[in-house]
Amino acid sequence: MDKLAAMRAFVAVQDAGGFAAAARRTGQSRSALNRQVLALEAELDVQLFNRSTRHVAPTETGRAYYERCRVLLAELEEAERALARDHIEPRGNLRLNAPMSFGTLHLGPALADFMVLYPALRIELVLDDRFVDPIAEGFDLIVRIGVPDEETTLVDHRIAPMRRLICAAPAYLETAGRPSCPAELAGHACLYYGQHAPGHVWRLEGPDGPEAVAVEAVMCSNNAEVLRDAAVRGLGLALLPTFIAGADLQEGRLVTVLEAWCARPLMLQAIYPPSRHLSSGVRVLTDFLTERFGGQPYWDLVS
Hints:
- The chain has helices at residues 3-16, 19-26, 30-44, 60-84, 100-117, 134-137, 170-176, 224-232, 242-250, 280-293, and strands at 49-51, 56-58, 92-98, 121-127, 141-146, 155-168, 189-193, 201-206, 209-214, 216-221, 237-241, 255-256, 262-272.
- The chain is an alpha/beta fold.
- Strands 3, 4, 5, 6, 7, 8, 9, 10, 11, 12 and 13 form an eleven-stranded mixed beta sheet that branches. Strands 1-2 form a two-stranded antiparallel ribbon.
- Helix 1 crosses helix 4 (60-84) and helix 2 (19-26) crosses helix 3.
- 30% of the residues are buried.
């Protein structure tokens, strides 16, 4: 028995809703399809279909096996297409999702360079800061900044750690003084990510382990670029990701304080469904993003 051919026959019958319809779709005879499915049932020692003279319906086992077969056959077809395209320029559509600030500051310029290299690819980029399920929402790849999910069934390509540091403008420190330990943050004007709430806490990691420090906000926002701008104007201390504050740190508009303490690093990830891991477009984009942002990202090159 050709098991792969038998699996294809079984899937074709289920997709078509019967042997006669599957025979018309595939160009095989009804008897040939029936023989392949019977051989598959004998090989597996299970009944895949309930049959009557007028009706064919999958058993519960058949429905479960169909889902597995459909995924396996789709991946095999994609693998075969990928082999055929190895020496062909990637083409087609790529639908992407990314966080707003990272998308405007870094991913947008990177994609412009990427499209120069691969002009046959068409990009749709959707920027927002909510958690996105690429399968449910039809994205080929999402760029995510967060704590990796060790239980995910998605392909998780980790590109670079994303550091978060406490920053302030030199003018603010000249006026308010420089804190020497996390406990002194309570006496400073702070700019934090989120909403106003009593007892807002910055969770830091330092020489003696984790520390949770309550801070008082003079301003809060759900956008870190807004907080960066306020910090540059000397309004207070901000806990900022370096992909947002990096240029200001490099040019001296911001400086770090409490250098021995930082927030837990997040991870820049390229995440995509398993069904897309052989897509040439997803593959070349993941490689490009790794080369562009991997290792020590350029926004962390602060003296």
